[in-house]
Each structure stands twice: as structure tokens, then as C-alpha cells.
């Protein structure tokens, strides 16, 4: 009896599963990137400053509208709930906050928001302004 030789199967590269994996990765990265887009903020009439500098991208942008509304990521907060939210963000000492207050917001309300950030343990606080003369 002569031994039979088996036909060797040639390896094939299947392209369809690779396309599926690449599309899955593309969707995954798009979803992650959309979550990384920072708060665009509200349309505020910001004060101007001739010494304004670009700050690093903050973790939170705290918007203060004219009647004293405090808005972060589209949600309204009171001062106490703002402190709780910022304090629960992991390590508040490393949290970066930018306060964007409308020109017409009373300075006392601005100071109260800044004080709430400090009570939460945030030490890196920026103030949003428009570049001006």
C-alpha cells in the first residue's frame, strides 16, 4: 500500500472579518472622541482683558449666567451641589476648572462660585475672558 499524501491547505487571509474589526475600532474611537470634546459653554458676554492667556484644557467649565445660574456640562447646579460634584471628581487638587461668568453677573456671585470651587478642594481655577484692547 502506498501512503496517501494529504493535500496541504493553503493559508488564506480572510478580508471580511478584518473589515468588521476595523469598522468596530473606528466606531469605538469615534464614540470615545465625542466624549472627550469639552463643554462648549454658553453664549456669554465675557469681560475683556488685554493680558488674557490661553489656559490648558480644563476638566470643567463653570458657566455663570446673568441671573446667577450656575451651569456645568448643561446641568444646573446650586453652590452646595457644585461643591459636591467637584469634590466627587476623584482628586479635586488635580481638577482644573475655568469659570466663565457673564459681564453682567454681580461680582459677589462670581466670588461665591470661586469660593465653592475652593471649598471642594480645587486649586487650579481659571477665569474666562475675551481678548481685548
Word description of this protein:
The longest helix has 22 residues, at 15-36. Helix 2 (79-87) packs parallel to helix 3. This protein has 3 helices and 7 strands; from the N terminus they run H-E-E-E-E-H-E-H-E-E. It starts with 14 loop residues before the first helix and ends with a strand. It has a domain at 48-131: Nucleotidyltransferase, domain 5 (2-Layer Sandwich), CATH 3.30.420.270. The mean pLDDT is 81. The chain has helices spanning 15-36, 79-87, 107-119, and strands at 48-49, 60-64, 70-72, 75-77, 96-101, 124-127, 130-131. By secondary structure, it is an alpha/beta fold. Helices cover 33% and strands 19% of the residues.
Count of DSSP H/I helices? 3
Order of strands across the biggest sheet? Answer: 4-3-2-5-6
CATH architecture of the domain at 48-131: 2-Layer Sandwich
User: Helix content range of the residues, please?
Assistant: 25-40%
Structural class: alpha/beta
Instruction: Point out poorly predicted stretches.
Output: none
**SSE string:** HEEEEHEHEE
* Rg calculated over all Cα atoms: 26 Å
What is the 3D form? Answer: elongated
Sketch the major β-sheet: 5 strands, mixed
Here the CATH topology of the domain at 48-131 equals: Nucleotidyltransferase, domain 5
Termini separation comes to 99 Å
**How many E strands?**
7
Q: How much strand content do the residues show? A: 15-25%
Classified by CATH, the class of the domain at 48-131 is: Alpha Beta
What is the residue-mean pLDDT, rounded to a whole number? 81
